[in-house]
Amino acid sequence: MVKVIRNFEIEIDKGEVCRYLGYGEDQHPTSSISSLIDEEIEEAYSLIQPSCFYRLMDIWRVRHHRVILEDGLTITSEVLSLVLSRCQQAAIFVANIGRRLEGRVAQLMKEGQMLRGTILDAVGSEAAERTACYLQDRIREFAQLNGTDITLRFSPGYCDWDITQQRVVFEAMNSAPLGVTLTEECLMVPRKSVSGIIGLGRSEKRQVRFSPCRLCTKTDCPSRR
């Protein structure tokens, strides 16, 4: 059964917006750009409509680089096989902020307001991330109530989980009205959407919060955890 969470608030982190805009840890926008970022964050709050859809599924078995979920849905990833081998359930999810913000970005670009459009687009990326984090927190609360813990959050296209596995995520949603569609290239529309999986397992059995980054030699990855 697909569960839905709507009508909740998120807090947009200005520092993260700056990161999306390309500012490093020791870099700061000018006062004029900083003011524009504040304005676009304020506008974003009137545009976004955060919503989350998720389904808790039993993990039937993990074999080599495959994770078999209930209904026979198969996830193919060596990394996820390692991570989910510690779990008994998985939460498959799709989160998004609606279409209005992207519509506003397109309008600004059409009007030639490239800077504002670029900033608002970065704000939208941060808002989508906060929406996924909100869902992750709710799943963590559910897990803790049931004496379990959760893994890190993984999305198709990260680590060795191929982007085409978006189809598995959407198949798990059982045609629920998500407000999000997939292109032939398995990209989500609207773009400010996040999909993925979170494992749930009993932490006393083995460590659930395993980070595959410990096995990766790439030190400059922006997604390193």
What does this structure look like?
There is one protein chain. This protein is of the alpha+beta class and 225 residues long. The protein is built from six helices and nine strands. It has helices at 14-20, 31-47, 78-84, 100-110, 114-145, 166-172; strands at residues 3-6, 51-63, 66-69, 74-76, 89-96, 149-154, 181-182, 188-189, 193-201. The strands form two sheets. Strands 1, 2, 3, 4, 5, 6 and 9 form a seven-stranded antiparallel beta sheet that branches. Strands 7-8 form a two-stranded antiparallel ribbon. A hairpin with a 2-residue loop joins strand 2 and strand 3. The longest helix has 32 residues, at 114-145.
Summarize the SSE layout with pairings.
Elements: E1 3-6, H1 14-20, H2 31-47, E2 51-63, E3 66-69, E4 74-76, H3 78-84, E5 89-96, H4 100-110, H5 114-145, E6 149-154, H6 166-172, E7 181-182, E8 188-189, E9 193-201
Antiparallel strand pairs: 1-2, 2-3, 2-5, 3-4, 5-9, 6-9, 7-8
